[in-house]
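Quick one, probably user error.
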C-alpha cells in the first residue's frame, strides 16, 4: 500500500494536497478523510534535510459513522535551494523512501514469518504512503512520505536537545530499541544469505571521504574541540588530536565507511541523536517506549558504531565509561533474544561485543567531533553538552581507545595514532 501507486499523483507543492489526494492515500488503510487543515511546520531540532508539515484531519475509520481527530506528517524535499541541492546529490530522500517502503516492510514480514513476538519487535513511525518521481533532470526529483504523527500518538520529543543528557531510564529504553532494530536486520540478512544489504536494497547511503564537505566538518569540528578542551588535560591529548585531525578521513574510511563483509553487519541508523527519537511514558511518568525516526542516513555497517555514537553523544558520561557494562549487557541480551526467537544462529558473545565497542569508540568520537558545532558547542548547547563531549574525549584517551593502527605504510607503524 505504501509503495508508489501510479494512480496517485505526487504533489509538487503544498497547494496540491487536496481532500481527494488524502483519501487516495489513506483509504487503503480504512481511513476516510472528511476535512483537513494545515497545522504548520513540524520540524524539531537543527540541520533539516527535509521539510516536515503537520496536517490535522477529521476522519472516519473502518466505515464508522463517528468522526475522529487525527494528524499526519508530510515529509518532502527541503525548499531551501542549497539544502535541497545537497540532499538530492547525497540521495538522502531516496534512502529514506527505501527504508519506509522496502527495508522496514521486508524485515517486518520476515519477523512475522518467524513468529517473533511483539516484545522483540522494534518500533518506528507508521508509514501510510511513500512515493517518488525522478523527473527529466536530477533537480526535478520529487518524493513524499505520509507518516504517523508521533506527538498525536502520545510520544514526546526531547525538547532540551543536547542541553540535557539522557538519564538511565531513557537510555535503557533507547538502547533496547537500537538492539531490536539491529537484530531484526541482522537476522533478516543472515536468514536470506546475501553478502551485503546493497544486494537487495541498492539505495543505501555509501559515504565518500572524497566529499569536499568532509573538509568543512573536520576544520570546524576540531576548532570546536580546541575551544571546549580547556583546563587541566591529560598529557599529550592535544597533540594526539592534532594527528587524528590529519588522518581522520583514513580512519573513518577504514572503520566506519568500508564494509567488512566477513564481520557481523546490520542496517545502522547512523544518526542516533537527541532530535531523532521520541519517548512515551506511563502514568507514573516513567519512560516505557522509544521510537527512532529520520532514516535518511541509514547504511550498512557494524552495530557498535551506532551504539557507541549514541551513548557518547546523548547520555550521561558514566553510561559509556564506568557503567558501560550495564548497557552493553542490555543490548546484548535484547539482540540475542531476537536472534533466538527468529531461529537464526549467530555466535556473538558479550565479550566480543565489548571488544567491538572499544574498537568503535574512536570513529564514533571522530563522528561527533565533525558535528560538534551543532551537537556539542553550538547555539543549542550549554555547559552540560560541552562537559559530556569533553569527558568522552578524555576518557577514551586515558583508556587508550583513541588509537588507530594505520593501514598505510609499515604494518607495525601506528604513525602517532
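Nope, works fine. Designed sequence:
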Amino acid at each position: 500500500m505504501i509503495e508508489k501507486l501510479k494512480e496517485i499523483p505526487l504533489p509538487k507543492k503544498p497547494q496540491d494536497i487536496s481532500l481527494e489526494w488524502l483519501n487516495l492515500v489513506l483509504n487503503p488503510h480504512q481511513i476516510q478523510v472528511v476535512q483537513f487543515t494545515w497545522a504548520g511546520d513540524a520540524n524539531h531540532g537543527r540541520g533539516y534535510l527535509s521539510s516536515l508539515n503537520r496536517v490535522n484531519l477529521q476522519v472516519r475509520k473502518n466505515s464508522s459513522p463517528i468522526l475522529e481527530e487525527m494528524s499526519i506528517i508530510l515529509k518532502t524535499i527541503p525548499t531551501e535551494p542549497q539544502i535541497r541541492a545537497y540532499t538530492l546529490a547525497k540521495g538522502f530522500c531516496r534512502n529514506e523512501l527505501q527504508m519506509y517502503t522496502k527495508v522496514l516492510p521486508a524485515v517486518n514480514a520476515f519477523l512475522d514469518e518467524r513468529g517473533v513476538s511483539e516484545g522483540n519487535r522494534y518500533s518506528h513511525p507508521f508509514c501510510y504512503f511513500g512515493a517518488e518521481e525522478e523527473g527529466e533532470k536530477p533537480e526535478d526529483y520529487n518524493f513524499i512520505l505520509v507518516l504517523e504523527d508521533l506527538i498525536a500518538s502520545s510520544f514526546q520529543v526531547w525538547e532540551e536537545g543536547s542541553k540535557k543528557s539522557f538519564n538511565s531510564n531513557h537510555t535503557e529504553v533507547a538502547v533496547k530499541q537500537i538492539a531490536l532494530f539491529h537484530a531484526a536486520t541482522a537476522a533478516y540478512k543472515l536468514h536470506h544469505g546475501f553478502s551485503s544489504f546493497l544486494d537487495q536494497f541498492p539505495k543505501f547511503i555509501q559515504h565518500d571521504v572524497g566529499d569536499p564537505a568532509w573538509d568543512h566538518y573536520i576544520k570546524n569540528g576540531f576548532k570546536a574541540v580546541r575551544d571546549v578542551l580547556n583546563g587541566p588535560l591529560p598529557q599529550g591529548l592535544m597533540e594526539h588530536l592534532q594527528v587524528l585531525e590529519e588522518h581522520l578521513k583514513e580512519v573513518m574510511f577504514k572503520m566506519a565507511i568500508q564494509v567488512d563483509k566477513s564481520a557481523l553487519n546490520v542496517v545502522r541508523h547512523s544518526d542516533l541523536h537527541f532530535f531523532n527519537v521520541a519517548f512515551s511514558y506511563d502514568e507514573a511518568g516513567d519512560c516505557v517506549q522509544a521510537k527512532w525516526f529520520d532514516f535518511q542516513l541509514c547504511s550498512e555497517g557494524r552495530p557498535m558504531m551506532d551504539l557507541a555514537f549514541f551513548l557518547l553523544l546523548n547520555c550521561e558520561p558514566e553510561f559509556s565509561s564506568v557503567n558501560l557494562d550495564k548497557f552493553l549487557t542490555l543490548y546484548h541480551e535484547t539482540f540475542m533474544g531476537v536472534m533466538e526467537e527468529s531461529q537464526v544462529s549467530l555466535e556473538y558473545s558479550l565479550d566480543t561485543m565489548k571488544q567491538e565497542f572499544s574498537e568503535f569508540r574512536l570513529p564514533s568520537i571522530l563522528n561527533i567531533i565533525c558535528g560538534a558545532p551543532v551537537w556539542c558547542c553550538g547555539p543549542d548547547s550549554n555547559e552540560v553538552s560541552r562537559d559530556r563531549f569533553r569527558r568522552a574525549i578524555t576518557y577514551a584517551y586515558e583508556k587508550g581507545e583513541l588509537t588507530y593502527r594505520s593501514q598505510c605504510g609499515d604494518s607495525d607503524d601506528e604513525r602517532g595514532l
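The CA atoms of residues 66 and 146 lie 23 Å apart.
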